Amino acid sequence: MAVALRQRPTMAPLVSAACYDAALRQEIFRLPARGASVAAARLRVRSQLPVWGFHEDVCDAAELVMSELFTNALVHTGSEQILCVLRAHERRSLYVEVTDQGGGPLGPTPRDAGVEDESGRGLALVRALTDAWGDRPAAGGGRVVWAQLSATAI
């Protein structure tokens, strides 16, 4: 599947509380910042998205995006817990968000991993699988890294 590279916006789309949409679905969960929680985050995505009616291809992509964002928060920050958000509008678009507690670099930066490198490809995968992604400071400290997937683009 050929995927065009996309510009990386600096702010995530926000949903206003004033405009409630009955088609909007949201799942929020917090997990301890440890290795076993990566699998737990993937399982939450894999369990929830079919309930919301998303096709298996979208579930696969979202599961991988969640895994990469969660792993980055785990490896590159001093977080004790990581907050995860899944937000869907009907079956057309999906928003994945991971919030850490800080203690790491200013923001995620994609690297050019070599053929022999064992890591460094996560954000390149996120960029390839999503319509947009970015980061912003979290309200209480730390960082929010988010990604938006279109169900029709996968």
Strand order of the largest sheet: 1-2-3-5-4
CATH architecture assignment? 2-Layer Sandwich
Q: What's the overall geometry?
A: globular
Mean pLDDT comes to 81
DSSP strand (E) fraction? Answer: 25-35%
State the total count of DSSP E strands.
5
Describe the biggest sheet? Answer: 5 strands, antiparallel
**Helix run count:** 3
Question: How far is it from the N-terminal to the C-terminal residue, by CA?
Answer: 9 Å
Helix fraction bin: 25-40%
Low-pLDDT windows of residues: 1-20
Relevant CATH superfamily? Histidine kinase-like ATPase, C-terminal domain
Number of domains: 1
Structural class by sheet pairing and helices: alpha+beta
User: What's the CATH topology label?
Assistant: Heat Shock Protein 90
Q: Give the assembly state of these chains.
A: single chain
Keywords: ATP-binding, Kinase, Nucleotide-binding, Serine/threonine-protein kinase, Transferase
GO molecular function: ATP binding
InterPro entries: Anti-sigma-factor_SerPK, HATPase_C_sf, HATPase_dom
Organism: Streptomyces coffeae
